[in-house]
Amino acid sequence: MANIAKLIAGRAQNVLQMAxxxxxxxxxxxxxxxxxxxxxxxxxxxxEKKNVAVITLNRPKALNALCNGLMKELSTALQGFGKDSxxxxxxxxxxxxxxxxxxxIKEMAPNTYSQCIQGNFLNDWTEVARTQKPxxxxxxxxxxxxxxxxxxxxxIIYAGEKAKFGQxxxxxxxxxxxxxxxxxxxxxxxxxxxxxxxxxxxxxxxxAQQMGLVSxxxxxxxxxxxxxxxxxxxxxxxxxxxxxxxEAVNTAYETTLQEGLKFERRTFHATFSTADRKxxxxxxxxxxxxxxxxx
Length: 295
Ligand SMILES: CCC/C=C/C(=O)SCCNC(=O)CCNC(=O)[C@H](O)C(C)(C)COP(=O)([O-])OP(=O)([O-])OC[C@H]1O[C@@H](n2cnc3c(N)ncnc32)[C@H](O)[C@@H]1OP(=O)([O-])[O-]
Description:
Elements: H1 2-34, E1 41-46, E2 52-57, H2 68-83, E3 89-93, E4 98-100, H3 105-108, H4 113-118, H5 127-130, E5 135-139, E6 142-144, H6 146-153, E7 156-160, E8 164-166, H7 182-188, H8 190-199, E9 203-204, H9 205-211, E10 216-218, H10 223-235, H11 239-251, H12 257-271, H13 275-285
Parallel strand pairs: 2-3, 3-5, 4-6, 5-7, 6-8, 7-10
Antiparallel strand pairs: 1-2, 8-9
Helix pairs in contact: 7-8, 11-12
Family: Belongs to the enoyl-CoA hydratase/isomerase family.
InterPro entries: ClpP/crotonase-like_dom_sf (IPR029045), Enoyl-CoA_hyd/isom_CS (IPR018376), Enoyl-CoA_hydra/iso (IPR001753), Enoyl-CoA_hydra_C (IPR014748)
Enzyme class: lyase
């Protein structure tokens, strides 16, 4: 009898939780559907729980070259999904031919030094790195120059088997300007980064994986589904704790080991003030799935 009562109570709780989630899903759909007048990107909501935002770079004629208009739309979409509590993670992708072939060379070519300085050129480029939610780059085709830099601003890079990564700026008489010398060196080490930046040569998906730039390689037609699957897995955890964890891993790239370890320890301690940490451990003890509230 007690078991039946427990079962009913459990079901009722599930129904209440599902009902509570409905407005959140509507919020997600609202952002995705109101924000569909994009010129250079596409936005959708994916996954069984509709908690994964997919942003697709969509400027096929220029191989998704990252013009100002595209970067502005990307920033707007990231800010929108960033504020949307029903979105747990974001996937950023391009086409099968190109994730992005770099900054728009034709748009950038007339720039002068003083225009770059006074116009704060590239200031719009940092939104991906500022986003608090996890972002997975799903890279098919070319990820060159600013395209590779954009992928490296994401938290995880998955590649299609035919993806090609590179920093060809050197052949244009310039150098990477959005993290190509810094994030690449941290990801693949000095010798690999030097070779890529100084020769301008491209590296394939397998090589990029061996170097540690990419974490997994898939057949091109499975890439996006796999990225969404990983984003959904991330979304099963507490969004609050995910945010803290992302911040802690990122700290590894910005500080000394001792400072990083201290930051990690304090952040770990801080999770003990959250309802989700309590629920996660209680659920383990009770042998049931955790019901996180992001609190
Ligand atoms: C932000 C911080 C600093 C970053 C700097 C950079 O990223 S510097 C950039 C670093 N990146 C590079 O240096 C790579 C530059 N791109 C390439 O080397 C080649 O396009 C390719 C090897 C990727 C593909 O060759 P393929 O023979 O298969 O294709 P295709 O060549 O025929 O291109 C199709 C159309 O796309 C156009 N378009 C392509 N990329 C760009 C671009 N970045 N810009 C503008 N347009 C671009 C291309 O002009 C053409 O249009 P058109 O003329 O028909 O109106």
